[in-house]
Structures are given as C-alpha cells and as structure tokens.
Amino acid sequence: MKLLSTAIFLVLAALPSLATAQVELKLGHVGEPGSLIGAAADEFAKRANAKLGGKYKVVPYGSSQLGGDKEMLQKLKLGTIDLVEPSTVMSSEADIFGVFEMPYLVKDRQHMRRIEKELFWSKFAPEAEKKGIKVLAVWENGYRHITNNKHPINVPGDLKGIKLRVPEGKWRVKMFQAYGANPSPMKYSEVFTALQTGVMDGQENPYAQIASAKFYEVQKYLSITGHVYTPAYLVAGTKKWPSLPAEVRKILEDTAKETQAFVYDKAAKDDEDLLAKMKAAGISVNTANKDAFIAASKPVYDEYAKEVPSAREVIERAIALGK
Q1: How many CB atoms lie within 10 A of CB 80?
Q2: Residue 59's beta-bridge partner residues?
C-alpha cells in the first residue's frame, strides 16, 4: 500500500507539468546559418513565440536537418512537420508557381508586392491548397546569379556545356537548357561537395545562399545575371493546420505576413554587403549582358504558356504590374 500511495503521489505531482507541456511547432528549411531563408525563419519564430504565451513554440530546423525541400513538403502533407519555408520547389507542387520561374519577370521588390496583392492570394495560394499546402506568407529567397569554375558568363552562349546545379523545379532546368547549359537538379545540402569535387561546374543562387554556404570558396567566377527572382514562402499542411487552436493559427498567420517587411529590408541590405564580402574573398565578379539573356528567354515563356495555359493571363498581368 505504501508503494502504491507513493506511485499515485508521483503521478499526481506530474500532472501540472503535463498540463502545461509546451507544444513544439517544427519549422523546416534548407538555409544555412547566415542565409536569408534562415534569418527569416528565426525572426518569424522570435516574433511568434513572444505572442504564443508559452503553450506553443515555433522551433526552426535549418540546414536541411528535416530533409530537402521535396522531403519536407511531403512530411508537411503527412503532418509530421508543422511549417516549411520552400522556394523554387513550389513550381513542382503546383504548376502556376512556375510563373516565378520565368526569367526576368519580377523587376524589384515593389513589383513583387504588387504581384502578391493583385495575383498571389487569388491565383497561386488556392492552387497550393489543392495540393495540401496552405501558404501563410510570401517572403524572399532573392535574385539569382551564376557561379562556376570555367569562365565568366556574359551571354547565354557562355553556358554551353557547363554542368550547372539547379534546384528541384523543372522550369529552372528548361531555362538553362534553353541557354545551352547542362543543368541537373540537386539537393541544396549536396551542392558544396559537388562543386568542390567537380561533379558540377557551377550553380545559381541568390547572394545570401552563395555566401552562407561558402560556395565562393570553391568557385572562381560570379556572374551577376539576376535571371530569376525567387520568392520564398512560409507554408503549413492543410491536414494538420485545422487541428491547431484558432488563436494559434491567427498568431502564426499574422506574424508570418508581418515578417515580410523584415525579410525585404534584410534582403536589400544583404545584396550590397554580401557581394562586397565575396569580392574581398577573391571570387572574380562580372556583370552579364541581361539583354542577351532576356532575348534567349522567349522559348521558355512560350513552352510554359503552352503547357500551363491558365498561366498566360497571370504572366501578362504580372508583367503589366511592373510598368
């Protein structure tokens, strides 16, 4: 009886702590420490956790700890991850996201804001939701540029035969095939070794990703092409999202949208600071002939519009919003 009483006492003593146990909300992304993707996730978590009152806590898992982009989105749909911050891979989930894979579509962040307001929530977000992905906010990955170990890239013809790592989105592959490169999709976490060993000659990413992953240590040339502006997104899974309390969902959604201003401000500052840092590290930098790349991009637009007919109107409207 004495042992039984002790056991009951210990169980009862533990009940208050069980009742107040914190629920962890896992936020996965592929960004390395110092990346814009990582900074966005950390800032969002800090702001959200200050409002959640201790019952729930957003915990970021960066550096592909929870898998590559495709793996994390699959886990999101299954409900084993709560939040993910994807970018290019969204075009493999819902065809309409390929609009953001079209070269030189987004002129600047103000243009992106107009696209978001006028088009994103009515055209893009519902298509993602059909695939089990609820978009909470539009953030940024950034303007993408090319690094490689062969020679400077000035015009599309300079890419001929170059083995180029691209993210897991088919329209990036098609774009670089049109430019003459030999593109191969590869997980972000594998890129440094692929460049270091010569499995890949080059890659393309925003400054923040190039610098945080230290690709400049294993690449000779950085060519400023700005060929694609890639948004990043904070997304939840439609399977698990409704199970969260309404007040928690509201905090997460409101905070996600509020974090956008921080992301855009940091992105603009990083563009200057990180380019200077990489130049100082010794990588050779050149500014590509964007007009030549724009001229070579028409077949990509034509093929995309043919394959995704509903996107033609969206593209035309997006371009008009930049004028």
Answers
A1: 13
A2: 26
